[in-house]
Every structure is written in C-alpha cells, then in structure tokens.
C-alpha cells in the first residue's frame, strides 16, 4: 500500500500561532491571561529551540555541516521523525535526483545545499521542515531564536 501525499499551501506564520495558541485571540480570555500565556509559550518555544541547537551541535561535531530534518508528517513514534543530513548525503541525494530527472527534488537539494553552505554554525543552525506542503530548508538564529515568534504573538 502506498502513502499518497496531497500537498497543500503552507499556512502563514500567524495562522500557525492561532492554531497552536487559540487562547491568544479568544475574546473570553482576560487580557492578563493572554499576556501570561504569551510569555509562557515563548519560554517553551525557546526551550524546544535550545534542544534543537544541542542536537544540531552534536550531529555537526560528528557529521559536519548539515541540517536537522523535522518531518512533521511522520507518525509521532516514527524513528525518522527527526534526523540529521550532512552536506555529503544531500549531495548524494542531488546526484540521485539528477539521474532520475526529478526536477522537484533537484531544486530542493540545490536550495538546501546553498542554505547549508551559507550558514554560519556559530550564529545559526539549519533545519529542513517537511510538512504537507512539501519541504523547505531554513536557518534558526542562535541569538534570540524565539524572537520571531514573540514578535508575531505581540501583533495578535
């Protein structure tokens, strides 16, 4: 049996916040509770991001430059839900995609390699996010990693 993925448009960051933290826009929740919830959720996000940075640093020390893969569509207990791919492995995936004429994967691998090679591991870590809309490679700053989330929350 094959798993067929239907790709959907990736929600905007503010849409994610509302989905994960609905109390932030609930008119029935007192403003003081909303502010406390924002602060608590920012601290939780910072803790999760600090853990990702530790995992990245460990993998980087053994495998070299690469990215943590966050597979958001894998089953929660699946061993490949979170992993690490280094630059060499990504280059090999690129070669395979080119041999198979898979332009989507070729484009993704090239973009990911560009992000990985351009990242300064002292200032940021690389992440590959896989969800129902596809995959993307991005960086997460080490300094104030939850700053973007905090800014979005303040604008809600």
Concise account of the structure shown:
50% of the residues lie in helices and 17% in strands. The chain has 156 residues and is an alpha+beta fold.
Explain this structure.
Mean pLDDT is 86; it is low at 1-6. A 4-stranded mixed β-sheet has the order 2-1-3-4, with helices on both faces. It starts with 12 loop residues before the first helix and ends with a helix. By secondary structure, the chain is of the alpha+beta class. It has one domain. The protein contains 5 helices and 4 strands; from the N terminus they run H-H-E-E-H-H-E-E-H. A hairpin with a 2-residue loop joins strand 3 and strand 4 (134-141).
Which percent range fits the helix content?
40-55%
pLDDT under 50 segments (min length 5)?
Answer: 1-6
> What's the pLDDT, averaged over the residues?
86
Radius of gyration from the alpha-carbon trace, in angstroms = 18 Å
* Strand runs, count: 4
- Helix-strand string: HHEEHHEEH
**Strand pairing plus helix content: what structural class?**
alpha+beta
Q: Work out the count of structural domains.
A: 1
Separation, N- and C-terminal Cα atoms? 43 Å
Largest sheet: 4 strands, mixed
Put simply, the count of helices is 5
Map the helices and strands:
Elements: H1 13-20, H2 31-63, E1 66-71, E2 82-86, H3 87-99, H4 103-118, E3 124-131, E4 134-141, H5 147-154
Parallel strand pairs: 1-3
Antiparallel strand pairs: 1-2, 3-4
């Amino acid at each position: 049996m094959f798993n067929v993925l239907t790709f959907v448009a990736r929600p905007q960051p503010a849409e994610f916040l509302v989905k994960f933290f609905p109390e932030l826009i609930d008119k029935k929740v007192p403003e003081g509770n909303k502010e406390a919830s924002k602060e608590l959720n920012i601290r939780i996000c910072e803790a999760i991001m600090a853990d990702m940075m530790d995992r990245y640093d460990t993998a980087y020390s053994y495998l070299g430059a690469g990215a943590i893969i966050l597979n958001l569509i894998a089953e929660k207990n699946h061993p490949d839900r979170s992993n690490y791919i280094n630059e060499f492995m990504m280059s090999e995936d690129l070669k395979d995609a080119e041999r198979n004429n898979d332009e989507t994967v070729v484009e993704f691998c090239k973009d990911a390699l560009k992000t990985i090679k351009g990242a300064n591991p002292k200032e940021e870590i690389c992440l590959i996010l896989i969800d129902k809309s596809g995959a993307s490679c991005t960086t997460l700053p080490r300094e104030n990693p939850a700053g973007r989330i905090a800014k979005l929350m303040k604008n809600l």
